[in-house]
Amino acid sequence: MTGTRGGLSLMPRGIRHKVVAAYCLMSIIPLLVIGWLISRYVFSGVKSPVEMINLTAVVLITILISLLGVVLTKRIVDPVVRLAYHARSIASGDVERVIEVQGEDEVGDMGLAVNEMADRIKKNMSELNTYGERVRVINQEINKKVAALSGVLQVTTLMSQAVQLDVVLELVLDKLQQATEANAYVLFIQGGEDLSVRLSRGIAQGAAPPVDWSPYRELLMRMERTRDLVIFDGEQRKNILAEDFFKKYGMGAGVLAPVVFQNKLKGLIFVGSKDPDLVFPPADLEVVRIFQKQVGIALENDFLVKRNKELAIRDEVTGLYNERFIRERLSEEIRRAILFQRPCSYVHLNIDHYDEYVRVNSPVAAQELLKKIGQVISKNIDDICKAGRSGKNDFAIILPEKNKGEALQTAELIRKEVARQSFPGMGSLPDGRVTLSAGVSANPIDGLTGDELVNKAIVALLQAKKSGRNQVTA
After folding, report:
1. Which of 39, 195, 322, 369 has its CA 20 to 30 A from that of 299?
2. 460, 361 contact by CB (below 8 A)
3. For residue 216, is pLDDT > 70?
């Protein structure tokens, strides 16, 4: 039975024969020759010149045979020594070393086997390195998601505590910066009709410059519609508008995340990198999407908080301020007027024959009446004045910086405007129309506190009622 290359044979194919031959050449054959010489020449006593020449030749041949044995032994031992040396090197980690196979004997088979083992070790090490790299990437993604989750929890906690919007947005930018690999972060929030820079990180100038959005209307409309990220990096470079936008900020790559609620674009998250070859990893994009939703929730939460505060000081029917707010604000304005020695007036209005109007018509019609009169009042006062509903059918107006004469003019203007209006069911009223009576007061003539001005204006209002209604009295 014979073996094949790469495996050991059960019957030796060369090295044993070489060892036997070397042993014979180095020891057995020389011993036999020496024995023959001793028996042939020493004991016979014959010493002729020819015999001496023959003896010398035999001795030289014997020496040559011994040298051949040494050479053959060296040729056997040297490959084994080299194989052992290379095997130790491979065992110490030098898997790139390759044993040079010079023969097809058992030593050659061993060399091939060691080379194959080294190659397998190298492949296994390569697979381990690849696996290690994959594990590292997975760990990075896990760490980013953990950081994002931690950020989400912190942002949610802040929102539940109704803290200021800027505090929430600051935390969002901080968490984005920790969880993604980029150079710049900007939050654009709707201010008026356009988006404006609210917060920024990593911008060289310290603050992100304002943006003229005119060239990017199409891009904004698309983001508002799709609500998806706009990515411009080493792989995705088709969006020319996005490329132009990022270049204006000195960025070679970036991500834009629209913030939409109530079906309107209310904000924009900008994440930029100076490296044009950067490809944003999926983990980074997922983090951006998470905080995109968080910013949307924060904006909507802020809107609801402000709306609730506004409702707390507004009358639900007319949209004007409620009585509590008017009373508090009047006291503040009176204190300011006294401090700076400036005038401040107050007007109290009442709808004439209101109960009769409700009785003949309906509560729904009465609410529409109140709402429309509130609109007339708001239209006829300036921005620094404050109007509110102060009772069932009463209205109040605070007029800072206006004396009693100016307040009388304003009240008279409102009275005439209401009298000219057409209201459903007003034909059932005594005058066939809706009218107002009003009382006017001013500091310091009529009082030095808010309550004093209110009481004085109500007294004047009652006087107007007694005098026939649909008039202004001071």
Report:
1. 322
2. no
3. yes
